[in-house]
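Hey, can you fold this one?
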Amino acid sequence: SPTWSDQMCRTVRELGADGVGGSMSNGTPGSLTGCVGFYLEFFHFLEYNGGPHPTRFLVGGNSGFRRKVLKENEYLNHSVGEDLLFSSRLAREGKRLLFLPRASVRHQNRTGFRTVFSYQHKLGQGAFLYRSFDAPEKVRLLQAAPLLVFLMPFAVMMWIGGTLLHRRRLADLLRFALVLPFCLAANFAWAWGFHQALRQAQRDTVLQKATIPESTNRAD
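Sure. Predicted structure:
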């Protein structure tokens, strides 16, 4: 939006924010697969009328930080999930992060079924990364019962619909209803990626535990 940079800089300067993030608008509203990817990836960050408010997560495609914050904190490059991991870590350290719902950028979404489903699978793997840090107790529950991961898409569909309704995004709600079956299918690709990352972490833990006694014996 024309006031994007002004809103971001003013929030840092006048409200003392360490990091700020804005909302995402759908840049491919005429594409079925583009809309599927947009709702699944950005429903937390939709534009609506409202003032700045605290948040734990800032999306990398529309965020900014004080220079000091970036100098003092490592920004990992995992290709997906690193933006949410970074902002979550800052929030836990007591940094002031604010979301600006009217500071919007238009996102040109990926299109094509194969591309969107493949990227959702990758996002699921990235979600395990930042959720392991931000909500380890929930991840431990899923590690105890991994198949619960595949119930998550049904909850996510209701979550997206409820968010659109709460924010009075009626046109988006109608569009989401039209692409709902495809959103559900794509979210199962996300769940499969999350499940794979979950099981890989479990295997790594088992291998690590198995090698500790062997290493100790060698040291003895």
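The first strand starts at residue 19 and ends at 26. Let me know if you want another pass with a different chain boundary.
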